[in-house]
Design a protein that fits this description.
By secondary structure, the chain is of the alpha+beta class. 17% of the residues lie in helices and 23% in strands. The protein folds into 6 domains: 102 residues, Immunoglobulin-like (Sandwich), CATH 2.60.40.1110; 103 residues, Immunoglobulin-like (Sandwich), CATH 2.60.40; 81 residues, Immunoglobulin-like; 107 residues, Immunoglobulins (Immunoglobulin-like), CATH 2.60.40.10; 414 residues, Alpha-Beta Barrel (TIM Barrel); 104 residues, Immunoglobulin-like (Sandwich). A hairpin with a 2-residue loop joins strand 32 and strand 33. The longest helix is centred in the C-terminal third of the chain and has 24 residues. It catalyses: Hydrolysis of (1->6)-alpha-D-glucosidic linkages in pullulan, amylopectin and glycogen, and in the alpha- and beta-limit dextrins of amylopectin and glycogen.
Length: 1238
């Protein structure tokens, strides 16, 4: 059965997952900003428990009850290492002067947010904001003993202690982790579902805590944040620098982060560790900021305050402070006399009393440490060679570090330990990096950077390789002379040897040749196959090949990343032999295959991106319905079969067919694509959505009628594109450049290059594969060359970028320009969730929602529109506008205008308006979940359909670009209707990726399980149900919804009123009728009405009643003229023709009365309009618009002042100011416009 990317990571322990049963790869596009329920990071973050001892003040200082005997009568047990007491690593001795200016400390103990970090994000305005809830703790001073563990901390684990959490409902909070952890949260379901739910946390007297499993290799830092089920980044990004291998717990109190349990303000604990374990007659002499209650305990010199208490860090004294200026003290050995009484002859001076409540001393070391690991605060944490003359070193901090002192301590050496002279150093305190200049040009040398006792190899990184080996020549296999000659080129500058392994065209397991390639100046390796190659082949087309790359004595077989087709692929064999690890490339000449007349689409009425109506479909799903088996001539589930059902889409009226990924993906057995899967199952099936890419140039064989023929898939896909074009529609490809299925796919080609990199030069990963580093020259070439090839060869008309926010904006922009140069009507969209990681410490403008105000090339999906109308993860199923949850009317109106409230869209084409996609529950199923009504009851199904029609109407009458999921028009469901699953089943039988749906009384539906992410489900679950879409007799409600949606599409395409070209035009022509707090309309309500004016003067007024009760919308002022218009949409019908007897719609003398769950559209033609009424606003209408402008402006300001994007990054202050301003401009009727590039 099929294996998945994370199967080997042991991440699937049975845990509560908010209705999500398992986390498996499948949907790399699981929307990070789409609202997932917070899940458990199985196998990585575990909960533990601790208990605390009581604390009490002793003699004016707060001391801990201790079992230790009085120092006058007994010695403490001898210890040879501090780990005997505290479990701490080997002590690192650091010498320094002891005045306050040279104190060594871990900076900062109070860890600030990353620069420009978003502030704690507000909750949805429709819900009350939660307050910070302190954990109940002892009112006296917290101490180390007060956090002794009931359960020991496991090896390679970091325990995070939280004094407070930002909500009372722990189940609404999650811990999101990344960097040097065993499994980052983003590999476990996307944002925010990969987070571990705080309901699993345990408590001690300090607060809550969670355990995080560290990576197997030496960990240097762990980053984390607390998010909520809505996808808000509440705390902002936090980072724990693992300053010692023995760091295994930290304490967090708000923005303060400590390596020790913090004490109450006004105290400081002086910990003293002696390696000999002898603390008798050892004491402390205080002055400065010490409170009088402390100094009064001192007798005549040298009778200091004795070390009576012992803790995890040695003996200690808690010092009460009088102020936070400067504490002076000496360590004394009262057995000595004269100056020898001073254990350390110089005064200890500590000034940073506001930021620290414990300090640490050891033996005779003059250094005051602010961590119990006795580690200097400036540490080397990584190095990489960026050019022949520069090495970049990363440090924990460079605060207060000067160039001269760093030069004294920093060393560079070769493999042979030969020192290399440093000519200069440039420090960047913001990024914690130092660029070291010198002669590092020895080709065979690997340079080592050493600072104090830490060393790192400086691997040549992507910048180094770009500076020397950036290559612009041709890559891949190019066929000439009808296959008689083939030129092949691959780029791998670090390879010692590259060979071509050629396999027989009739048997991909049979090697028929092994030929060496020649290396070029830019790291490219080339060979030309011909009759002279000694293989006895006159036509190389159809033969298969790998490249064998030898590097440092090791060889690997790799896939040509530019291969245009592949041998049949079966991932089940991947681990059986090295030759099956990746697919074999095929030698093909795509230009000579398939339809020679293929051209770009000519779509009627499509002149700008707002004119598009996008329909998302999966190739297999569209024809896998067993009911149409006898109607198909071609094999079901293929490109060829898809062609046979295209007339349905033409008649539906959409402009673009968006295909889920069709490029080669990894986890599938293409040879079994003919096998139907008619039983209900949601795991371990030969099915895939395709978000685990193996190749960016070669099509998958899964949708070919003959996967063994590398030319057939090309031929059949070209036929599909051509047939779509013939019907006046375009083709959009869903592409997945953000990550690969397996990190080795590119790492084997050229290590430490193709992916975004960590500071230590290792690849950054996502969903088990590498994050393609599109800022790197050759990696960007892969993306741009792939886009260019697909447009040029297959004449496609657009692209949808999976996890687009993972890319830098410049790469996407370059791809757009390259595609547009070939196809002027290209359209691009993507998931603009704020997920960019890039190269560590190298920020770029991501291609996310924050970019939408800077570009008009690519659009982003609007999660705000989706969540307002129907809800989404992590609150999927909670009531939203079309499911009975009153929502803020101004927020919905902004979204209808393609002006979402969570990012700035300065052009309507920036916004993809959608409420359903392949991810998550279908629209029909989410409505059923939200209203808690089993669709097996006819009345319930009818209600679900009425709500579904409201949703589809809002999508298709909103500004921006509408997007529909296949089957959304008829009410597609992914219900698990297996007889064995009637009613609730045992936990170990629950289907993978399922939600359990219940009625209002809490009883389960008849078939209660619904699959929310069906990327590994059978045809029984995933098929497009043709009977529901077309059989009016058997499925009257479904076909009514289908016809209703079809009519709305026709209406949208008949006028430009719903697809205006600019924000200024929208602000002028789209007006809200239902102004909050007027005529019975509440600020949060279930009705909305608005009108829009077409360029020809026709006015369209949209009225939506999502209330179950009848509602009347009063029309005043200019809107009274609408009563003279014609009704073209009612509860069951939609289109462009007037309805003689509209159902559920009554026009009264002063308004519109709508039955429950009913919408209508009134068209007032320009020829009908009363110029006196519509040409100039009456005083009443003017007053109405003034109130609307005030509401818009106030709404925008309040929304943007209280929330930021769902991201782990920068503040959105600029967006706040920009949107507040845009609201004012909107009120001025669009007097200010902006010239935009299209």
């Amino acid at each position: 059965m099929m294996k998945r990317l994370r199967e080997n990571q042991a991440l699937f322990e049975e845990r509560q997952l908010f209705g999500i049963r398992k986390l498996k790869l499948g949907v790399a596009s699981v929307a990070i900003a789409t609202a997932f329920s917070l899940g458990t990071v199985s196998g990585q973050i575990t909960a533990a428990a601790e208990s605390l001892t009581s604390v009490e003040p002793i003699d004016g200082a707060v001391m801990v009850k201790s079992e230790a005997a009085d120092h006058d009568s007994k010695e403490l047990p001898e210890a040879t290492d501090i780990s005997d007491i505290a479990g701490i690593s080997d002590v690192t001795k650091v010498s320094a002067a002891v005045n306050a200016d040279t104190v060594k400390e871990v900076q900062p103990v109070a860890v600030p947010l990353v620069e420009d970090q978003a502030q704690a994000e507000a909750t949805d305005q429709s819900q009350p904001s939660s307050s910070i809830v302190p954990v109940t703790t002892d009112s006296s001073l917290e101490t180390p003993e007060a956090t002794s563990s009931e359960e020991p901390i496991a090896e390679q684990t970091l325990r995070l202690h939280f004094k407070t959490l930002p909500a009372q409902d722990l189940s609404s909070l999650g811990l999101w982790v990344w960097d040097d952890v065993e499994t980052p949260s983003d590999q476990l379901g996307g944002w925010p579902t990969g987070a571990t739910n705080f309901s699993l946390a345990k408590t001690d007297d300090y607060g809550y805590y969670m355990d995080v499993k560290l990576s197997a290799e030496q960990a240097h830092k762990v980053s984390f944040l607390i998010n909520n089920t809505k996808g808000d980044n509440i705390t902002g990004d936090r980072t724990v620098e693992l300053i010692s291998p023995k760091v295994n717990e930290v304490w967090i109190d708000g923005q303060e982060l400590s390596y020790y349990p913090p004490l109450a303000q006004g105290y400081i604990r002086i910990n003293y560790y002696r390696s000999d374990g002898h603390y008798d007659n050892k004491s402390l002499w205080l002055w400065g900021s010490a409170d009088a209650s402390m100094t009064s305990q001192q007798g005549a010199w040298p009778d200091g305050i004795d070390f009576k208490q012992v803790g995890r860090y040695g003996a200690y004294i808690d010092v009460k402070l009088a102020d936070f200026n400067e504490l002076g003290f000496l360590l004394l050995d009262e057995r000595q006399t004269g100056d020898a009484v001073k254990i350390q002859p110089n005064d200890y001076i500590f000034k940073d009393l506001k930021n620290h409540t414990q300090i640490f001393l050891k033996d005779e070391d003059p250094t005051i440490y602010t961590n119990p690991y006795f580690v200097n605060h400036v540490r080397l944490i990584g190095a990489k060679q960026v050019s022949p003359s520069s090495i970049e070193a990363s440090f924990t901090t460079l605060a207060d570090v000067d160039k001269e002192s760093l030069l004294k301590e920093l060393k560079i050496s070769t493999d042979s330990k030969e020192a290399v002279a440093i000519t200069d150093i440039t420090l960047d305190e913001k990024t914690h990096k130092a660029v070291i200049t010198g002669d590092f040009s020895q080709a065979v040398a690997t340079y080592t950077v050493t600072f104090h006792h830490e060393s790192f190899q400086a691997r040549p990184n992507w910048q180094y390789k770009d500076s020397l080996y950036a290559y612009d020549g041709e890559l891949g296999a190019r066929v000439r002379e009808a296959g008689a000659k083939v030129d092949l080129t691959i780029w791998s500058p670090s390879a010692d040897k590259v060979s071509l392994v050629l396999y027989d065209k009739a048997d991909q397991t049979k090697v028929i040749g092994n030929l060496a390639l020649a290396k070029g100046d830019k790291g490219e390796w080339s060979i030309t196959l011909s009759a002279d190659s000694g293989l006895g082949i006159s036509d190389y087309r159809g033969y298969f090949y790998h490249y064998e790359i030898t590097r440092n004595g090791k060889s690997v077989l790799v896939l040509d990343p530019y291969a245009k087709s592949l041998a049949a692929w079966n991932s089940e064999l991947a681990k059986t032999d090295p030759s099956y690890k990746v697919a074999k490339a095929a030698i093909v000449d795509p230009a000579a295959i398939g339809d020679k007349e293929l051209a770009f689409a000519d779509i009627k009425g499509f002149h700008k991106r707002e004119d598009a109506i996008i329909y998302e479909a999966h190739v297999r799903d569209f024809t896998s319905d067993q009911a149409i088996a006898n109607d198909l001539k071609a094999q079901f589930g293929t490109f060829a079969a898809f062609v046979e059902k295209l007339d349905y889409l033409k008649e539906l009226g959409i402009t673009h067919v968006q295909l889920l990924p069709v490029m080669s993906y990894y986890f599938v057995n293409e040879l079994a694509n003919k096998e139907r899967m008619l039983t209900y199952s949601s795991s371990d099936n030969n099915y895939n959505w395709g978000y685990d890419p193996q190749s960016y140039f070669a099509l998958t064989g899964m949708y070919s009628t003959d996967p063994t023929d590398p030319a057939k898939r090309i031929e059949e896909f070209k036929q599909l594109v051509n047939e779509i074009h013939k019907r006046g529609m375009g083709v959009i490809l869903d592409v997945v450049y953000n990550h690969t299925a397996n990190v080795d796919i590119f790492e084997d080609l050229e290590p430490n290059y193709y992916h975004f990199m960590n500071a230590d030069g290792t690849a950054r990963t996502s969903f088990g594969g590498g994050r393609l580093g599109t800022t790197h020259y050759m990696s960007r070439r892969v993306l741009v060359d792939s886009i260019t090839y697909l447009v040029d060869e297959y004449k496609v008309d657009g692209f949808r970028f999976d996890m687009m926010g993972d890319h830098d904006a410049a790469a996407i922009e370059k791809a757009f320009l390259a595609a547009k140069a070939l196809n002027p009507n290209i359209i691009m969209l993507g998931e603009g969730w704020v997920t960019y990681q890039g190269d560590e410490h190298m920020p770029e403008q991501p291609a996310d929602q924050s970019w939408m105000s800077q570009t008009d090339t690519v659009a982003s999906f609007s999660d705000d529109f989706r969540n307002q109308l129907k809800s989404g993860f992590p609150n999927e199923g909670s009531p939203a506008f079309i499911t009975g949850g009153a929502r803020d009317i101004m927020t919905i109106f902004h979204n209808i205008k393609a002006q979402p409230t969570n990012f700035l869209a300065d052009d309507p084409g920036d916004v993809i308006q959608y409420i359903a996609a392949h991810d998550n529950l279908t629209l029909f199923d989410i409505i059923a979940q939200s209203i808690k009504k089993d669709p097996s009851v006819a009345a319930n199904a009818a209600e679900i359909h009425r709500r579904l029609r409201l949703g589809n109407l809002l999508v298709l009458t909103s500004q921006g670009t509408p997007f529909l999921h296949a089957g959304q028009e008829y009410g597609r469901t992914k219900q698990f209707k297996d007889e064995a699953y009637k009613g609730k089943v045992a936990d170990d039988k629950v289907p993978n990726k399922s939600h359990l749906l219940v009625n209002e009384d809490g009883t389960p539906f008849e078939y209660p399980y619904f699959i929310h992410d069906s990327y590994d489900s059978t045809d029984a679950i995933n098929h497009f149900d043709w009977a529901k879409a077309t059989d009016t007799e058997r499925y009257p409600e479904s076909t009514t919804s289908q016809a209703f949606t079809k009519g709305l599409i026709a209406l949208r395409r008949s006028t430009d009123a719903f697809r205006l070209a600019s924000k200024a035009e929208i602000d002028q022509k789209v007006k809200l009728i239902t102004v909050p707090n007027e005529h019975g309309i509440k600020a949060q309500d279930l009705v909305i009405a608005y009108q829009t004016t077409a360029s020809n003067g026709d006015v369209y007024a949209v009225f939506v009643n999502a209330d179950s009760n009848d509602r009347t919308i009063r029309l005043t002022g200019e809107f009274q003229a609408l009563l003279a218009g014609e009704v073209i949409v009612d509860a069951k019908q939609a289109g462009t023709e007037a309805l003689a007897s509209p159902e559920g719609v009554v026009l009264t003398k002063d308004g519109v009365k709508l039955s429950g769950l009913t919408a209508t559209i009134i068209r007032l033609r320009a020829s009908q309009s009363d110029k006196g009424t519509l040409g100039a606003m009456t005083d009443q209408a003017a007053h109405h618009q003034e109130k609307l402008v005030a509401a818009q402006t106030a709404g925008e300001v309040s929304q943007f002042s209280s929330k930021t994007l769902p991201k782990t990054g920068t503040s959105q202050l600029d967006s706040l100011l920009a949107l507040a301003g845009s609201g004012i401009l909107a009120g001025l009727g669009g007097l200010v416009s902006k010239s935009k590039r299209r």
